[in-house]
Amino acid sequence: MSVEIKQHHCLQDLNSLALPAMAEYFCSASDIEESRQALAFARRLSLAVTPMGGGSNMVFAGDLPGLVLHLNLKGISHRPSGQNQVEVTFAAGENWHQMVQHCLTRGWYGLENLSLIPGNMGAAPIQNIGAYGVELCDVFVSLEALEIATGNLVIFDRQQCEFGYRESIFKGAYRDRYLITQITLRLSTQPLANITYPALAEALTAAVPTPQLVGEAVCRIRQQKLPDPAVLPNAGSFFKNPVVSESALASLHSNGSDAPCYRQADGSYKVPAAWLIDQCGFRGQRRGLVGVHEHQALVLINYGGTGTDLLALAAEIQSAVIERFALALEIEPRLYGLV
After folding, report:
1. Residue 186's beta-bridge partner residues?
2. Mean pLDDT by 10 residues, the chain (339 residues)
3. From CA 15, how far away is CA 55, in angstroms rounded?
4. Which of these is catalytic: 158, 166, 287, 334?
5. For FRET with 131, which of 24, 33, 163, 252 sits at 20 to 30 Å CA-CA?
6. Does the active-site annotation cover 33?
7. Is residue 79 exposed (0-12), middle (13-18) or buried (19+ Cβ within 10 Å)?
8. Is 188 a catalytic residue?
9. Distance between CA atoms of 262 and 135, rounded to whole angstroms?
């Protein structure tokens, strides 16, 4: 049975920002063979291929030429991995938060701090998702991917992924060169809770916090601060937190700024982008049909605008932050459809 390829397919309902965009060709693949058939189709017509998962980390500035390949692969398996550990393999199309909940139910721990992050499993390694003191790379073992140019299956280990702060090789040198089909994570079977993140520690009142309580606390915090994309279309954090050197931080503070900062393991400092944006007066502001969320300045909202509208607001914010603090804000989601 041949995979179905659609022409001129609307992507508005498939991205969490609800931005209008059309794919020249579109295919939703439910397994490896369908993915390979779609890639073969793209090669025959010399089409560019854009991988797509849950659409929570994509900003469409216009229509997408070529083939948009939606990976809808499902499945989960596991095997023991040493003492008090288990390796769990997730198909790329599984929903991230649902899998976090599934792991908690099974007694597999390590993902609870990443509860309620939108998107699917396959997208998680691309930007090395992280929250509340945990990053994907902390538990990552390997991933399996199809090479777009050949359809060959390739395995990448942790080192080969070149993880960094919201970074991986799949955002740089290997951008849109591979379709991630599954990821394998090493989780603990011991219920040890990670509450190193200050806001999370403050939110937990239990004398002995459990991973389940951590997951519940993370959900409460996120729901209080972040809007539901189904209600207010958004892509979560729109900008990365700037990471600066000690001397750059000293310069920032010497200019009269009391910017909060968090020391990193390498001696650098992370400055909250939300604080910088808030100080520039953007929180709760609107520019036509797009705006900044009233409770979290790091989240841009689409009220019915276009990707062009959203990126114009983002550029305005970036310019204001540079002018006031001499810090550059980098957009976190990936941009598509730029002319």
Report:
1. 87
2. 90 96 97 96 96 93 96 96 95 97 97 95 95 95 97 97 94 93 97 87 81 94 89 94 91 83 89 95 97 96 97 98 95 88
3. 4
4. 166
5. 252
6. no
7. exposed
8. no
9. 16
Comparing C-alpha atoms, which of 219, 209, 195, 188 is closest to residue 133? 195
Asked if residues 257 and 325 have their Cβ atoms less than 8 Å apart, the reply is yes
Which residue segments constitute the domains of the chain, with CATH numbers given?
6-71 (3.30.43.10), 76-224 (3.30.465.10), 229-336 (3.90.78.10)
Q: For tokens 């389940």, what's the residue?
A: 212
User: H or E stretch including 223?
Assistant: helix 211-225
* Residue 208 per-residue DSSP state: S
Query: 3-state DSSP call for residue 295?
Result: coil
In the numeric block, which tokens belong to residue 18? 């609800």
Catalytic one of 35, 115, 237, 257: 237
Can 332 be counted among the known catalytic residues? yes
Q: Over the range 81-92, which residues count as b (16 or more CB within 10 Å of their CB) and which as e?
A: beeeebbbbbbb
* DSSP code of residue 283: T
Give the chain's end-to-end CA distance (angstroms, integer): 36
Residue 13 burial (C-beta neighbours within 10 Å; 0-12, 13-18, 19+): exposed
